[in-house]
Amino acid sequence: MSRSTVRTLWAVLALILILPWLPLPAFWLAQLNYIGLFAMTSLGLVLLTGVAGLTSFGQAAFVGMGAYTAAWCALNLGWPPLSTLALGLVITAASAWVIGRVTLRLSGHYLPLATIAWGLSLYYLMGNLEALGKYDGLNGLKGLELLGFEVGQGRGFFAVSWVMLWLCTVALMCLLDSRPGRAIRALKDGRQMAEAMGVDTFRYKVTIFVLAAMLAGISGWLLAFYQRAVNPSAFGLKMGIEYLFMAVVGGVNQLWGAWLGAFVVRILDDQLQEWLPRLIGASGSFEVIVFGVLLVLILKYRPEGLWSWLKQWQGPSVRVRDWDDALPLPHRDKAAAGECVLDVRAIRKTFGGLVAVNNISFQIHAGQIVGLIGPNGAGKSTTFNLITGTLPLTSGEVYFNGQAIHGQHARDIARQGLVRTFQHVKMIPDMSVLDNVAIGAHSRGQSGVLGAIFRRNRNEERSLMAEAERQILRVGMGEWMHEPAANLPMGQQRLMEIARALSADPALLLLDEPAAGLRHQEKRELARVLRQLQSEGVSILLVEHDMDLVMDVCDHIVVMEFGTYLTEGTPSQVQQDPKVRAAYLGTEH
Ligand code: ADP
Ligand code: MG
User: No. of H helices and E strands in the chain?
Assistant: First the structure.
C-alpha cells in the first residue's frame, strides 16, 4: 500500500471517531447511518463489478439474508446480536458459494440476468415464508447491544457501523494489494493471462462473490437492528439496482467510490423526494426518473464515476519499498542439459474448415533456444496456444519433461514451469508494472485471501515483490517500475510480459514475437537476456519475425507454412534451404 493511502485511511478513521461528538442534527445523523449501511453493500459491488467485472443486481437479497437471520434468531431464540451476525455470515457465505458456483461460469449479459433471477427468487422466498412473517416481515427487535453497551440508533450506532465499514474497507485494500488481490484484479480484463500464469480464476471469482455477499450480510445485520424490524421490501430488485447504482455513481474502480456513491445517492434521493413534488405539484416516485437520467449521463460522461473527480487530490501511489532483506523464492529444478524438455507429437487444430495447425511435431532439449518461424498465419501462435493449454487440441499429444500435458488446464501447465508471453500483449492496464510482473510469480506463493486480509502474508509479499523487481531490472525496465502499465510504449509492454513470465521461474519459456516494437539496441539487450537465461538452464521456444535475432540466438529452427511442418535444422541449414527461401524468406524479403 502507498503512504498516501495509509494516511488517508487514518484521517478517515479520525473523522469517524470525531463526528459523533459534534452537534449533528438528528436528521443528518440518521442519513449518515443509512449511508454507512449502503456503503457496506456497495463496497462488495465495487469489488465485484469494478475490480472483477462481474455485475450483480442481486446483492439486496444477501442484505436480506443477513437481516432476516439477525431478526429471526434474536426474536425466536433470544440470541445475542454477535451470534446472529456470525450465523448470518455463515448463511450468506454458504448461499453465495452455491449460487456463485452455479452462475459465475456464465459470461456476457447472462451473468447479470442470472443475478436478477436469483435476486427475485430470494425476494419472493422471504416474502412468502410463514416463519419470516411473509410480507409484513419481523418486527419488535430490540436495539443493538454489544458487549453490554446500548448502541442504540444514534451516535453509538454511527460509530459502530462506520468503524465496521472502515475495517471492511481496510480489509479489502489489504486484499487487493496482495497475491490473491492481483489475481482478483486480473479477473476483469486479464483472465486468459492470469490462467497462463497459474491462477485459478474461477476460484477467485467465487471467492469475491462470497466476500461481497458477506459484506451485504453485515449491512443487513446492522439494518435489522437499526430499523428494529425487517421486511422484504428493502431486499427486492429495486434495492439491488440501487446498490449497483451507488457503486457506479461513486466509481466502481475504487473502494472509496462505494462510500461516495452511497453518500450521493442517499442525499440526492432524500432531497429529490422533498423537492420534486413541490416543483411538479404532484406526488409520485419521480426521483426514479431523475436517477435514470443521471445514470445515463454518468455512464456517458464519467464512466469511472464521481470518484475520478476527487482522485486528482490523491498523492501518487508509489509502493513503499520494503523488500531489501526478503527471502528469495524457491527455484524449480531444471532438466539436465540435453534431456528432452518438450515433445510435441502431431498436434492439430482446426477452426471449422480451417486447419490452423496440421500435425506438427518437434522437440526441444534442455538448454536449447528453438526458433519457430513461418509467414504470417502459418499457425505459430496457435501452436503456442495448443502447447500451453490456452486452446484445446483437436488431436495430438504434448509431453513436458516426460509427462503428458495435453488436455490439462493452462494454469496447471504453467505451474509445472512451461510459461509463455502473448503476441498481443495482455496486461492489467491500471496496475503498476511491478504488480503486473508480480502476477507472474503467483504460483510461487501460497498466501490466500484470509492471509492477505489479516496481513499474515507480509514476508511472502516481500519475496514476490523482490522477485518482480529483479526480473524488471533484468529486462532493463527499472525506470518504469511504478508506472501504470497502460503508460508503457509498445516495446516496453513486451519486455514487461517477458519479465512477468520470468517471475514464474520457467523451465521452458515460450516467447511470441518478443522483439516486435523494440528498437535496435533493445533487441540486442533482449538477445543478451535470452542467452543469459539459456546459461541458467532455461529452454526457450521463440516465435519471431526479426530474422537477424532468430539466426543469432537460436540453436535450432522449425519452419511452418500454412499450418504444416516445412522443415527444421540449424540456422544455417534453414537459411540455405530452398523450400524455406521460397516459402518464407521469399515472401519476407
Ligand atoms: P501465426 O501466429 O503464425 O501468424 P496464427 O496461429 O495466429 O498464425 O493463425 C493461424 C491461422 O489460424 C490463421 O489463418 C488464423 O486466421 C487462424 N486462427 C487463429 N486463431 C483462430 C481462432 N480463434 N478462430 C479462427 N481462426 C483462427
Ligand atoms: Mg502469431
Answer: 24, 14
> How far apart are the two ends of the chain, measured CA to CA in Å?
51
Q: Which of 192, 348, 354 to mutate to test the pocket of ligand 1 (most atoms within 8 A of CB)?
A: 354
Whether 357 lines ligand 1, by a CB cut-off of 6 Å, is no
Angle between helices 81-103 and 201-227 (to 10 degrees): 140
Q: How far is CA 507 from the centre of its chain?
A: 26
Each residue's pLDDT tens digit in the chain (589 positions)? 778 888 889 999 999 999 988 988 989 999 999 999 999 999 999 999 888 988 899 999 999 999 999 999 999 999 999 999 999 999 999 999 999 999 988 877 888 899 999 899 999 998 899 889 888 889 888 888 888 888 888 899 999 999 999 999 999 999 999 999 999 999 998 999 999 999 999 999 999 999 999 999 999 999 999 999 999 988 989 899 999 999 998 988 889 999 999 999 999 988 888 888 888 877 777 777 888 888 888 888 888 888 888 777 765 677 788 888 888 898 888 888 889 999 999 999 999 999 999 999 999 999 999 999 999 899 999 999 999 999 999 999 999 999 999 999 999 999 999 999 999 999 999 899 999 999 999 999 999 999 999 989 899 999 999 999 999 999 989 999 999 999 999 889 999 999 999 999 999 999 999 998 889 988 998 999 999 999 988 999 999 999 999 999 999 999 999 999 999 999 999 988 888 888 765 554 4
Element (H, E) at 541: strand 539-543
Task: Say if ligand 1 is within 6 A of residue 385 CB.
Answer: no
Looking at ligand 1, which residue's alpha carbon is closest to its atom 21? 351
Nearest CA to ligand 1 atom 16: 377
Ligand nearest to the CA of 377: 1
Tell me the whole-structure pTM to 2 decimals.
0.91
Among residues 498, 495, 467, 466, the alpha carbon closest in space to that of 480 is found at 495
Indicate which residue's Cα is closest to atom 12 of ligand 1.
356
Mutate to test the pocket of ligand 1, among 347, 358, 382, 584 (most ligand atoms within 8 A of CB): 382
Q: Give the whole-angstrom CA distance, residue 579 versus residue 581.
A: 5
